Here is the input.
Amino acid sequence: MNSKIIFFIVLFSLSIYSQNVAMNKDWPNLNKYASENSQLTSTFKSVVFMGDSITEFWKVNDEAFFTSNPFIDRGISGQTTPQMLLRFHQDVVELKPSVVVILAGINDIAENTGPITIDEIMGNIISMVELAKTNKIQVVLCTILPSNHFYWNPKLEPADKVISLNKLISNYAKKNKITCVDYYAAMVDDAKGLPKKYSADGVHPNLEGYKVMEGLVEKGILTYIKK
Here is the structure.
């Protein structure tokens, strides 16, 4: 094998190793937004979007959605609900928003941080809701987007687990009179997946997919803002 190719493989491996070491030292990634959070004023009143890569990449695909609205993106790629729960106080509660939009659970089903049951995922989501309500923050709960495969974990068959978690989310929201935004119903195809017109990889939305989500979530946020 060419020595230069070997060098770059080693360099890449070391880079990945360093990232993993950093993540192990800060498992919930509290440092991700620490600087940005410190720059927000104490009078800040807005909407915080809490989530994973689908939320984080939102501002990359459609930056105007956040710059033209009083919205703050606090998504972190790859995160699962236990990680979000650990950083919820820092990245949501301490910002004192009027509303938090929670989109979480798909990476749990992908077992990004290990096996977890649907009920355990829902328990973490409920804990985030309770933290928000205790601090007088209104909650918009979102069903997770459809997915019938994970390109990074192809052995899994997530479609039915996505449906099961979304039923729990919808029922909990209805029982507790919480606004629920149903992304799943608006975006699912006949194969219980995310259609190509909305996504290139079957998991992350493209701009057209985010536009669908924006129309839905804005209506959900307005149920509180109007009040």
About this structure: The first strand starts at residue 47 and ends at 51. The beta strands are 47-51, 71-75, 99-102, 138-142, 179-181. DSSP finds eleven helices and five strands in the chain.
